[in-house]
Amino acid sequence: MGSPGLVFIVDDDSSCRAALERMLMTAGFQVKGYASGQELLGRLLSDTEAQEARCVLADLRMPGLDGLQLQEACIAAGVGLPFVFLTGQGDVPAAVSAMRHGAVDFLDKCDPPQALLGSIHRALENHAQIRAARARREELGRRFDALTDREREVLGHVVRGKMNKQIAAALGIHERTVKLHRNAITTKVGVRSVAELTTLAGRNGFLDEPQQPYP
What we know:
The protein has nine helices and five strands; from the N terminus they run βαβαβαβαβααααα. By secondary structure, the chain is α/β, with parallel strands linked by helices.
């Protein structure tokens, strides 16, 4: 991962928060500290232009919005950030709940610094992968959105294994026209084979769209 990423530290204990900030900055991470879950949540909901991988390092027990509630609030708001929990008051049910909701790790404050740094690295790598996958899906969506209505009709038949002659008969057009549409489709989507086109169409949800039956 090129950038070290940004770690949001949430802990109502100012001395603990400051110590964590120093440790992570020394390790090369970007760090921003918050005294409450509400404060961080407000920042996340207003920040839609983030360019770096990010994660949350949160204390479990805090007044107001505690760590688990913050994690759940982020999920509900569509803010998909990996969480690492660091607490001196952990218990099995809390750990199970945190991991069930996608936490990367659940550590005790007595655990060695190396364990925390390893968890932070994993969380940031996880978020980088999520962002990359989302960017690929969005780009794929833009490519399919660029297709004309007729190209989408032709594509629907192509990905179901129909030959050009069958497609032409089904749509009432010339076979040469089908070939032109197929060439336009592969150019716009950026593929070279029907197999690849079918795979990408499936990922884009195209195979779920209803098609007209053949006569």
